[in-house]
Specification:
By secondary structure, the protein is α/β, with parallel strands linked by helices. 50% of the residues lie in helices and 17% in strands. The chain has two domains: 73 residues, Ribosomal Protein L15, Chain: K, domain 2; 240 residues, Up-down Bundle (Four Helix Bundle (Hemerythrin (Met), subunit A)). It is globular.
């Protein structure tokens, strides 16, 4: 279970071996063995004993910024595994195999975008043609992606990202038309978001980043050694690479909330034209994200929660890298 503390002034302590969460007159007690991560806002107070218990129970502690993205974390020294994986991770990042791996991830991302668009389609509605056109264009983008050839991602990344970016713009343009008018947006905007929907997308992606980075660390991978995003200094670039496959899960939660019209402008703080989620919007979005990602679904032949599927993806990548051999050390 992931525990998210987003209320200002909340405090955490340990009592009788349990995690005690207090905010005002509200008090909640949780057993540590039921928690796998705790997400904290800046305005949260916790004791050193909470940190010690988190380490003992291998619970990830994430500190998130206003937009939902982690800016710091504390994790157990028991996370991870042998250094072989990290050495191979660096070698793999410079190999032709990394090119194939990244192209596969981006292709599957585009397939997920196509599937989400079909899910938004309304039978016999005029916008069906918009969905169909976008899906066909994204299919062309997938073919263009596969036609990009080369041995090193460092050389190919700009071209791969250009194709992926084009497909994503088509996707958002088609989605936008299917949202109620008050939630429509001209384009993706970040730091800050310029509208309600982008603010929700940014916050949802931030939560997804934290969960993906935790899965990579627990699998023994180094989030700082990426493949396609490898040139970004002091950033968890492998997280950015891996998250591409799962973005549409977060998208669906946000778009579904928009279509239900349950989040309104007064649920946001607007400063200098930028939109930030206030407590009501955070509460609704976090609850829906948690419920959606804890749902059991069949994916790659296994029925697990979406959160578990993300962890299994990281574990499979770690297993691949552990056994990876370059031409120089192949026997």
């Amino acid at each position: 279970m992931q525990v998210v503390i987003e209320k200002r002034g909340a405090s955490l302590k340990v009592k009788d071996g349990q995690l005690i969460i207090k905010h005002g007159d509200q008090v909640q007690a949780l057993a540590f063995n039921t928690i796998d991560s705790i997400v904290l806002s800046k305005a949260t107070v916790l004791t050193a004993e909470v940190v010690a218990q988190a380490v003992e129970h291998q619970i990830d502690l994430l500190f998130v910024a206003r937009g939902g993205k982690p800016f710091a974390r504390l994790w157990s020294p028991y996370f991870g595994s042998i250094a072989t994986i990290r050495r191979h991770q660096l070698l793999f990042s410079r190999s032709p195999e990394a090119v194939a791996w990244m192209k596969n991830v981006l292709t599957r991302k585009m397939e997920n975008q196509q599937a989400l668009l079909y899910a938004l389609a309304m039978p016999n509605h005029a916008t069906d043609k918009i969905i169909e056109s976008a899906v066909l264009k994204i299919e062309e983008d997938k073919q263009r992606l596969q036609q990009i050839e080369g041995a090193k991602l460092a050389d190919l990344s700009p071209r791969l990202r250009a194709v992926e970016g084009q497909a994503t713009r088509r996707y958002f343009q088609a989605v936008n038309i299917h949202l109620p008018e008050m939630y429509r947006f001209g384009q993706r905007s970040r730091r800050p978001a310029l509208d309600m929907t982008n603010a929700m997308l940014n916050y949802a992606y931030g939560m997804l980043y934290g969960r993906m980075e935790s899965a990579l660390i627990k699998a023994g991978l180094d989030p700082m050694i990426g493949f396609m995003h490898r040139e970004e200094y002091n950033r968890p670039v492998l997280t950015y690479d891996c998250i591409e496959l799962f973005r549409t899960w977060a998208d669906w939660v946000v778009f579904d909330l928009c279509r239900q019209q349950v989040i309104f402008r007064e649920f946001f703080e607007v400063e200098a034209g930028g939109y930030w989620l206030a407590h009501p919007a955070k509460r609704i979005l976090i609850q829906h994200l948690t419920d959606f990602f804890e749902d059991q679904i069949e994916w790659e032949g296994l029925t697990r929660s979406r959160y578990t599927h993300m962890s299994l993806f990281a574990q499979r990548l770690a297993a691949l890298l552990k056994e990876y051999k370059t031409d120089k050390n192949k026997k």
